[in-house]
Amino acid sequence: LAALAGWVAGLAAAVLPQWRQSSYAGDAIITAVGLHEGLWMSCAAQSTGQVQCRLHDSLLSLEVHIQTSRALMVISLLLGFFGIIMSVMGMKCTKVGEEDPVTKSRVAVAGGVLFILSGLCTLAAVSLYATQVTYEFFRESTIPINARYEFGSALFVGWGAASLSMLGGSLLCCSCPAKERRGQQYHQQSQPSAAREYV
User: Fold this and answer.
1) With the CA atoms of 83, 89, 91 and 93 taken in that order, what torsion angle do they form, in degrees rounded to the nearest 10?
2) In this structure, is residue 189 part of a structural domain?
3) What CATH number should be reported for the domain holding residue 60?
4) DSSP H or E run through 126
5) What is the pLDDT of residues 84-94, one digit of tens each?
6) Are 15 and 40 in contact (CB under 8 A)?
7) What is the pTM of this model?
8) Is the pLDDT at 27 greater than 70, yes or no?
């Protein structure tokens, strides 16, 4: 459930346009128009409640950190999707492959590994974008502070998604029983049946 929630949150973070937003720091605060930018579009929210969004026109004209974050988020979502499929197949409550519990647990572990990789990709994408926003905010320039950008809400959603994905993936990786435990369980289960045969 944690990994699934992390994947859904990662999907929401990738779609949301609030990766960076207008800064309200400084002396002259302008609240008439708030600007938001994301991986796929940029929006302008007016004080009247109207929001106008525009998709990024060209892929190649985008900055490098936006293109990299886009690619990492797409890879993260694909890894999480395959992780969901494999972890569902490896769950004990499903009927798929229940005749071989060892292989079933290994499939669950593989799903956990995919979720961990998905979380790492999300973490890298969000952290890269946040680093660029921080650099541009504190860079010495003629742009006033209230015209610069700060962290948007989608960045925090992305950090939470990465944490949930890695937590869920780690728990799935712990579902693989040790070889000694499997041997003890089979040995204990085989003793009563042998005793019944002798009786």
Assistant:
1) 140
2) no
3) 1.20.140.150
4) helix 101-138
5) 888 888 777 76
6) yes
7) 0.75
8) no
